[in-house]
Specification:
By secondary structure, the protein is of the alpha+beta class. It has 4 helices and 5 strands. It has a domain of about 120 residues: Aminopeptidase, CATH 3.40.630.30. A hairpin with a 2-residue loop joins strand 2 and strand 3. The protein is elongated and about 65 Å long.
């Protein structure tokens, strides 16, 4: 997909420091708008790793600078993992579609492209549906605030309740192991 006002550059190895800053900036802007970080820790660490030959960076630029970024991890034997982000100010211009098409074109059979989406965002679902990419795995991040919880002697957790009693194994007051966030 050609975009008249956007150029997509392919880089192997470390990105220039200014480009690293630009990618981090659009990722931070996307996290603020979307409520979830668009890139995981590993792609962020690989932005300026010159020794990592298994990574391909795709940088989408317009006249104002970096407007999109995608990273392709060629290190796995089967699936080629990728993540991408488009600056919130540049969305709805086809940049995500163009980056995804370039990612897909970079993967040679019999390998398959696996795209990570952070958060269940409507735009990510629409992009995946348009590219015929089904959801094959969902990850949940669960947290438990332990402040205010009772502690045992020496600051350690109290012992579990006895089996069969209220709140114990087999008891009627047993809580679920995890709850889906609402």
């Amino acid at each position: 997909m050609a975009l008249p006002d956007v150029r997509i550059e392919t880089v192997r190895g470390a990105l220039a420091p200014g480009t690293v800053a630009d990618v981090r900036s659009i990722a931070a802007a996307a996290a603020t708008v979307d409520g979830v970080a668009p890139l995981s820790e590993q792609p962020l660490l690989r932005l300026d790793d010159a020794a990592d030959a298994e990574v391909v960076h795709l940088i989408a630029r317009d006249d104002d600078g970096v407007v999109g970024y995608a990273q392709l991890d060629l290190g796995a034997p089967d699936d080629v993992s990728s993540e991408l982000v488009v600056a919130p100010s540049a969305r709805r211009r086809g940049i995500g579609t163009a980056l995804l098409a370039r990612l897909d074109a970079s993967v040679e059979p019999p390998r398959h492209l696996a795209v990570w989406a952070h958060g269940d965002l409507p735009a990510a679902r629409a992009l995946a549906a348009q590219a015929d990419l089904p959801v094959v795995r969902e990850l949940w991040q669960m947290r438990l605030d332990l402040t205010g919880r009772p502690t045992g002697e020496g600051g350690r957790a109290p012992p579990p309740p006895p089996a069969g009693g209220p709140g114990g194994a087999g008891g009627a007051a047993r809580a679920p192991a995890a709850r889906r966030p609402r």
